Every structure is written in C-alpha cells, then in structure tokens.
Amino acid sequence: MSSLVQFAEIVDEAARTAQAIPQFTESAPLGVEEAYAIQALSIERRFARGEKLAGVKMGLTSRAKMAQVGVDEVIWGRLTDAMRLEEGGSLSKKRYVHPRIEPELAFLMKRDLSGEVSPAEALSAVEAIAPAMEIIDSRYRDFKFALPDVIADNSSSSGFVVGNWNKPDQDFSNLGIALEVDGRAVQIGSTAAILGHPIRSLVAAARAAAPIGGLKAGWIVLAGGATAAHALSVGQHIRTTIQKLGSVSIRVAE
Ligand code: 0L1
Ligand code: MG
Question: Which of 138, 143, 153 is the best mutation target for the ligand 1 pocket, counting ligand atoms within 8 Å of the beta carbon and taking the most?
Fold first, then answer.
C-alpha cells in the first residue's frame, strides 16, 4: 500500500470516527500535490460508502481566514451530499472533533465551468447565489496543521448548510455579513473580503477543479469564509445573515 493511500485511510477514518490525529507533516515531507492526491483518495473512500460529489469549497479566500490559520494561499476541497445539513435543522457535535462554523456565500452552477475563465464567464454559469455556512473541523490535534496537512484533510470541510437561493443578477460584491450566536453578533464582515469579490473565488474554483473535469451544472461552490470561524458549543443557535440575500441557521445538538 503506498503511503498516500495510507494517509488517505488515516484521515478518512479520523473524519468518520471524529478522532484527532497527529499532523502528517510531522512524520512525512508532503508537498501540496501529494496532499491533493491524499484528499482525492480519501474522498474516493466516501464514494465507496455511497456518498456523491455535490460541489467544492474554496478556502482561505479572506485575510481573516489566512491570519486565523497562518497560511497565505487559496485552497479547495470537495463537498459530498452527505455533508449537507438541513437549513434550520441541527448538527450533532459529537460527530466532529472540534467543529467551527463560518459564514459563506454559495453559488449554484447552471452550467459546467472549467479552466481559465473570466469573472463574466464565471457569472454567466451561475444559476443562483445564497447565504450559507461551512462547518470546518480539522482532524488534526488542536486544529494545528501545515498547508499540506489541511489540504489532505479536505481543507477541513466537514459540513455545509445553504439558505434560500437568490438570482445572481445583482451586485453581490460588497454585502454585509453577520454571524450570530444566540442572537448576538460574533463576527461581522463583507462579501468584499472574499478575494475582493466572491466571483473571483468561482474563477479560482473553475481553475482548481479543471484536473477533475471542472465544475458541473447542479454543483454548489462555497466561495470561502469572509470572517474568522467560530468554535461551536452544544446548545448554540447559529445564524448567518447576508444583506439582501437572507439568512441561514442551524442549532448545535449533543
Ligand atoms: O476557509 C476555509 O474554509 C479554510 C479551511 C481550512 C483552514 C481551517 O481549518 O480553518
Ligand atoms: Mg470555508
């Protein structure tokens, strides 16, 4: 068994059983390319359990996120249908190691999109946009990792919840975002924090996904957090509101 396959099995088992593991880079000199190979192999294991690819998440697309994790380049991960949580529903905290949540803007793809595209081409492939949240749950101890570790770990992506869809024919370059916990705002931001305009994140997603055949019609693309993420505790009610687009919420259960 090659070590990439072994790493994929370890990180997949850590995610499946909600157990923290040591960083891979503590014992192996992994590069970014190998890390994406581990990510792909670990997601293959989910496919073997019946999960389906539902889209991609872009990560570290804002200064706040880069500063929070000490990394300064955009990364990506895969979303599966099993990672989607019901809007207004609840998540079970015990299914995660040390989950955090962050506001996101979601794109719903109308057409396939792949490779080098302009922002206008990217926008023309969008069916709708929505307020959303991503649950990120690093499988590494203490939420500590180097860039190859986090990429191998599906860029920490562990769940997502999407609010109501809106037409994309509006200016969403600088909309206010509030993340509330039990009605109290804990993070405030703007969609402008996502690479200056969230559409740039979709351009980056089309480029990133090209080696796997590009983004597909019907997929969801999470543009990336605009604020730092918030650590979840049992009992909390979490809501993200994006100006003009609406709100999305979830409750944290045992
Ligand atoms: O922006 C992101 O979704 C980054 C996820 C990877 C880093 C982290 O776990 O916070
Ligand atoms: Mg995110």
Answer: 138
* DSSP line for 138-192: -SBGGG---HHHHHHTGGGEEEEEE---B-S-S--SS-EEEEEETTEEEEEEEGG
Whether 62 is in the pocket of ligand 1, judged by its Cβ within 6 Å, is no
Beta strand residue intervals within 22-66, DSSP E: 53-59
Q: What is the pTM of this model?
A: 0.96
Write out pLDDT tens, residues 140-188.
999 999 999 999 999 999 999 999 999 999 999 999 999 999 999 999 9
Q: What is the pLDDT of residues 76-96, one digit of tens each?
A: 999 999 999 999 999 999 999
The number of domains in the chain is 1
Which DSSP state fits 87? T
User: What domain range includes position 140?
Assistant: 2-253
Strand order from edge to edge, sheet including 184-190: 90-92, 246-253, 237-242, 176-181, 184-190
Give me the CATH number covering residue 189. 3.90.850.10
The answer for residues whose C-beta is within 8 angstroms of residue 73's C-beta and 6 or more apart is 60, 147
Is residue 57 a contact partner of residue 76, using CB atoms and an 8 Å limit?
Answer: yes
State the distance from the centre of ligand 1 to the C-alpha of 59, rounded, in angstroms. Answer: 5
Helix (H) or strand (E) holding 181: strand 176-181
